[in-house]
Design a protein that fits this description.
Oligomer: heterodimer
Structural class of chain B: mainly alpha
Largest interface: A-B, 44 and 32 residues
Number of domains of chain B: 1
Shape of chain B: globular
Order of helices and strands of chain B: HHH
Number of strands of chain A: 9
Order of helices and strands of chain A: HHHHHHEEEEEEEHEEHHHH
CATH class of chain B: Mainly Alpha
Number of domains of chain A: 3
Strand content of chain B: under 5%
Number of helices of chain A: 11
CATH superfamily of chain B: ACP-like
Shape of chain A: globular
Helix content of chain A: 40-55%
Largest sheet of chain B: none
CATH superfamily of the largest domain in chain A: Butyryl-CoA Dehydrogenase, subunit A, domain 3
Distance between the termini of chain B: 34 Å
C-alpha cells in the first residue's frame, strides 16, 4: 500500500472511530467527514496525480475500500459512488472535462452516479431519461431511482439517451451519454429514501430532472455512445469496489464473531469450543480468504489492463456479495442476542450485505453474465461430450 | 522518448490478423473480417468492453469518449479501422489540438 493510501487509512480509522453504529441509527453521515476525505482524494483514490488524485492501484484502493467497508458500509457506498463517478469521467470525458471534474472530485466535492429508473433496472431498453441538444445547451429530463450518495452529492453523473440513437434502438445502438449535472441546477429534485434496508446512512435518493438546462460541455466525451457499453464501463468499477467492500463486511464479521466466541462462555467453556459454533468460525475464515482472493484477482486484471477485468469484476462482486450475506447471517447467529440490535456491527452487516446481493448487478444478473461467459469460452471441440 | 519500437509494424493486415486470432481464442469460433459480431450473437456488450481494453493495451491507444460506439466494434474491419485511426492520431502529436470542447 502506498504511503498516502496507508496514511489515508489511518486518518479514516481515526475519523470513523466507533461512530458507524450511531450514523446507521441516525441514517446520516457527517457531511464534513465526507468533504474532508474527499479533499484528501481518499474517496476516489485511483485518480492519477496529474488530476490531483492519489494514483492508487486497484489493488491498493481495494484494500482501502475493504477497510472502510469493515468499519461502515454507508461510508464505503459513498466511496464507491465517488470512485465510479471519477472513473466514468476519466474513461469518457475529453481532456477539458477530466481536468475540471477530476479536480473537483479530489478537492472535496462529492459525486453520485444515476443509472436505475422506475422501469429500467437491468433492462436498459426501458431507459427513458433523455439528454436533448438545444442550441449550445442540452436539456435533461427523466427520473432516476436509488441513487447512492445523492443526498450528499454536489455533482450527479447521469446516464441517459442522447443523440440520434435516442429514438428507438436505445440499448443496441449508439444513442446514449453520461451528463454531469450540478445537484443545485434548477429542475433537479431530490427525494431522499427515508428507511433503506441497509447502508442506511449512504444518502440514497430518487432524483427527478425536469427540463434541466446544462452547457453542452457537460456531456462526457460529446455523447452518442453505446448505452450498454457506457453501462458496463461505469459498472465495472462499481462492481470491483462493492466486491472489496464486501470483503470488509466479511472481515468485520470474522473478527467480531471470533472474538465473541473466544470470550463468551456457556456450559463451562468458550463458545468456540462448541463444535457447531466452531464450524461457523471456519466458514467465516473461508469466506474471508475466498472473497479476498477473488477481489485480488480482479484488481490484478484491472491494474494490468487485462481484457479479463470485465468478467473478473462480475465474478468478484458475485462471490464476495454472497459471502458477505452468508457471513453476516453467520456472525449474527454466533453473536446471538449480543448482536441483535440495530447499529451493532453484525446487525449492520446483516442488512448491508443483503443490499450488496442486489446492487451493481443482482445475484441473478451476475449469474446470467457468468453463464454467458461460460458458454462463450466453451471450446468448439469438447472431448467430454464425445458421444 | 526515442526508444526504438520493437513490435511489429502496425498495419491493417497485422491488426486484422491479431484480432482474428484474439477472437478465435476468446469466443472459440473463427470469424470473418466483415462478420457482424453483435448480430451473430458472438459478442455481448460485456465482451465489447473487453475488446476496448484489449485494443488499448495491445496498441497503446486510448479509446474514449466519442469512440465508444458499438459500431466501432461491430466487425474486425471496423476495429481495425479504429485502431489505425487512433494509432495515427497518437503518432501525430498535433492531433490533440482538435479538442474544441472547453467552455466553463
Amino acid at each position: 500500500m502506498s504511503e498516502q493510501v496507508a496514511s489515508g487509512r489511518a486518518l479514516i480509522g481515526e475519523l470513523v472511530g466507533d461512530q458507524a453504529g450511531s450514523w446507521d441509527l441516525a441514517r446520516e453521515l457527517p457531511a464534513e467527514l465526507l468533504h474532508k476525505l474527499g479533499a484528501q482524494g481518499l474517496l476516489c483514490a485511483e485518480v492519477s496525480a496529474a488530476y490531483g488524485g492519489l494514483g492508487a492501484s486497484s489493488q491498493h484502493n481495494g484494500e482501502l475500500t475493504a477497510y472502510v467497508g469493515s468499519l461502515c458500509s454507508s461510508l464505503r457506498s459513498v466511496m464507491t459512488s465517488q470512485g465510479m463517478a471519477a472513473w466514468t469521467i476519466q474513461r469518457l470525458g475529453d481532456r477539458g472535462q477530466r481536468r475540471r471534474y477530476l479536480a473537483d472530485l479530489t478537492s472535496g466535492l462529492l459525486a453520485a452516479v444515476a443509472f436505475s429508473e422506475p422501469a429500467a433496472g437491468s433492462d436498459l431498453s426501458a431507459m427513458r431519461t433523455e439528454i436533448r441538444a438545444s442550441g449550445d445547451s442540452v436539456v435533461l429530463d427523466g427520473q432516476k431511482i436509488w441513487v447512492t450518495g445523492a443526498r450528499y452529492a454536489d455533482l450527479l453523473v447521469v446516464l441517459g439517451l442522447h443523440g440520434d440513437g435516442a429514438t428507438g434502438d436505445g440499448a443496441a445502438g449508439d444513442g446514449a451519454a453520461f451528463v454531469v449535472v450540478p445537484a443545485s441546477a434548477p429542475g433537479v429534485h431530490l427525494e431522499p429514501i427515508a428507511d433503506p434496508l441497509g447502508c442506511r446512512a449512504a444518502g440514497h435518493a430518487h432524483v427527478r430532472f425536469d427540463n434541466v438546462r446544462l452547457p453542452a460541455s457537460s456531456v462526457l466525451g460529446g455523447g452518442g455512445q453505446s448505452l450498454s457499453l457506457l453501462f458496463t464501463t461505469a459498472l465495472s468499477y462499481g462492481r470491483i469496489s462493492v466486491a472489496w467492500g464486501c470483503v470488509g463486511i466479511v472481515r468485520a464479521c470474522l473478527s467480531t464473531a471470533t472474538g465473541h466466541a473466544k470470550r463468551r462462555e456457556q456450559s463451562g467453556k468458550p463458545l468456540a469450543q462448541h463444535q457447531l459454533v466452531a464450524r461457523h468460525l471456519a466458514e467465516l475464515l473461508v469466506a474471508e480468504q475466498v472473497s479476498t482472493l477473488v477481489c485480488e484477482r480482479a484488481s490484478q486484471s484491472w491494474d494490468s489492463a487485462s481484457p479479463d477485468m470485465v468478467i473478473a469484476a462480475v465474478l468478484a462482486k458475485h462471490v464476495s456479495a454472497g459471502h458477505a450475506a452468508r457471513s453476516a447471517a453467520t456472525a449474527v447467529q454466533v453473536l446471538a442476542s449480543a448482536g441483535a440490535q440495530d447499529g451493532h456491527v453484525v446487525a449492520r452487516a446483516y442488512r448491508d450485505a443483503k443490499l450488496m446481493e442486489i446492487i451493481e448487478g443482482s445475484n441473478e444478473i451476475s449469474q446470467l453474465i457468468l453463464a454467458q461467459h461460460a458458454l462463450a469460452i466453451l471450446p468448439d471441440e469438447h472431448p467430454n461430450e464425445s458421444r | 522518448m526515442t526508444a526504438e519500437q520493437a513490435v511489429a509494424p502496425v498495419t491493417a493486415e497485422t491488426i486484422e490478423d491479431a484480432l482474428l486470432s484474439f477472437l478465435a481464442e476468446r469466443v472459440k469460433t473463427s470469424v470473418t473480417p466483415d462478420q457482424d459480431l453483435f448480430s451473430s450473437g458472438l459478442v455481448s456488450s460485456m465482451f465489447a468492453m473487453q475488446l476496448v481494453v484489449h485494443l488499448e493495451e495491445a496498441y497503446d491507444i486510448a479509446i474514449i469518449g466519442p469512440e465508444l460506439k458499438l459500431d466501432n466494434f461491430r466487425t474486425v474491419q471496423a476495429m481495425t479501422g479504429l485502431v489505425l485511426r487512433l494509432h495515427d492520431a497518437s503518432a501525430d502529436a498535433s492531433a490533440d489540438a482538435s479538442d474544441a470542447v472547453g467552455d466553463v
